[in-house]
Write a structure and sequence with these properties.
The protein has nine helices and eight strands. It has helices at 27-40, 61-78, 91-101, 118-125, 151-169, 186-194, 214-220, 228-240, 251-262; strands at 6-12, 44-48, 84-87, 105-108, 129-132, 174-177, 207-208, 245-248. The longest helix has 19 residues, at 151-169.
């Protein structure tokens, strides 16, 4: 039997994320976006309060929380039981979110590297954790794309090391995110996708976040807005190679892709 595929619907509480329709900074716009994602079949809503696209700068934990707090309170008033993941690499943000809404999934692009307090906090709270592969920071990562051993081998070695750090921190429930678009060239992203099944070795669920990303639109000389069809083809490739989580902008289309994959 194939594993259940879960879809994370993206909501950005920002004004500078690379795909404009995912931005929902104001209260009613945020709730309207969440309603749409839920109606289309999202299993979780992934909320980010700071863009992490290449070249972006951090806004800091205080600004992230300033954006998150009213959104989370509004979310829980309408969707008290909706599973949530929060896209942050700040442990103070995790602590405040937990105090506000209780258990949730932490989605950390740095796998704890950008805040040494993150892994102990997540382990202590017993939260599910998405660990992503990245080098440097969003400002510097695209200058750090040299992988002499090959990109897939480097990512696999990275997660073998992370498994030990997670164990030490008491994190048992974690998901592997290869980090498409983070410290990788367009060609390396496609190599990583083609070889995704190799990342099943650590024995953890694999999350793929490739929705409308530059690996797609730069390859074909199109815009993020024109990238939906190619995104779904890439999603299908990811499912064939072992992905069990898809982080997406377009939940309805991703759900159809999952349904087609599941009938095989």
């Amino acid at each position: 039997m194939k594993p259940k595929i879960r879809i994370l619907g993206i909501v950005n509480l920002t004004d500078d994320s690379y795909y404009a329709p995912s931005r929902a900074a104001s209260g009613e716009a945020f709730l309207s976006h969440v309603r749409q994602l839920v109606e289309e079949g999202a299993d979780l809503v992934d909320i980010g309060a700071c863009s992490t696209r290449p070249g972006s700068r951090p806004v800091g934990a205080e600004e992230e929380w300033k954006r998150l707090e009213p959104a989370l309170k509004a979310l829980r008033s309408e969707f008290p039981d909706l599973p949530v993941s929060i896209d942050t690499y700040w442990s103070p943000v995790v602590a405040r979110v937990y105090d506000c809404i209780g258990p949730f999934t932490v989605n950390d692009i740095s796998a704890g590297a950008m805040d040494p307090s993150m892994l102990p906090l997540v382990g202590g709270l017993g939260l599910p954790y998405i660990a992503m592969h990245m080098r440097g920071t969003p400002e510097t990562m695209q200058s750090l794309t040299d992988y002499p051993e090959g990109v897939t081998a480097a990512v696999l070695r990275y997660f073998e090391g992370f498994a030990s750090r997670a164990e030490e921190a008491g994190i048992r429930d974690w998901i592997l995110d290869p980090g498409f678009g983070f410290a990788k060239t367009v060609e390396q992203n496609w190599t990583l996708l083609e070889e995704l099944d190799r990342l099943q070795a650590p024995g953890k669920p694999i999350l793929v976040g490739i929705s409308r990303k530059s690996m797609i639109y730069k390859r074909f000389g199109i815009t993020p807005e024109e990238s939906l069809p190619a995104t779904q083809v890439a999603h299908y490739m990811a499912l064939e190679r072992g992905a069990t989580y898809l982080r997406v902008h377009d939940v309805a289309e991703a759900r159809r892709t999952v349904d087609i994959y599941s009938i095989r």
